[in-house]
Amino acid sequence: MAVEALKLIRETEEEGRRVLEETKENAAVILKDAEQEIKGLKDKADDDEKSLAVDISNKYAKEGKEEGKAIQENAIAEAEKLRAAAESNLDSAVNRVLERILGLK
């Protein structure tokens, strides 16, 4: 009976060691898989971040270009108005200068 009990204890210990080793191996595999999954998620997040940054940059570059074009068009229109006003005043300015030089007025 004592021999059987000792044999049962020894078998139980060996089974416990085997289960512990299997558990350690399974834990190592799970940890490795988790680390690979985390790396994949980080890489995807980095790619998504870069893509989003490019999209935002392109959006604001386009808006800036459109705004710059509108400002340029307004500036050209304003310059044209000033040129037209200057041309319309040119004759009277020349006449006044000549009148002063010639002492007519």
Q: Largest beta sheet, briefly?
A: none
Beta fraction of the residues? Answer: under 5%
Are there runs of 5+ residues with pLDDT below 50, and where? none
**Which outline best applies?**
rod-shaped
Q: Indicate the multimeric state.
A: single chain
Number of helices: 1
Structural class by secondary-structure content: mainly alpha
Q: Report the radius of gyration as a whole number of Å.
A: 44 Å
Distance between the termini: 145 Å
Look at the structure and give the mean pLDDT: 91
Helicity range of the residues? Answer: over 70%
For the secondary structure, the number of strands is: 0
Q: Please trace the helix and strand order, writing H or E for each element.
A: H
Task: Describe what you observe in this structure.
The protein has 105 residues and is mainly alpha-helical. The protein contains one helix and no strands. The protein has one helix at residues 2-102. The longest helix has 101 residues, at 2-102.
List keywords for this structure.
single chain, 105 residues, mainly alpha, 1 helix, 96% helix, 0% strand, rod-shaped
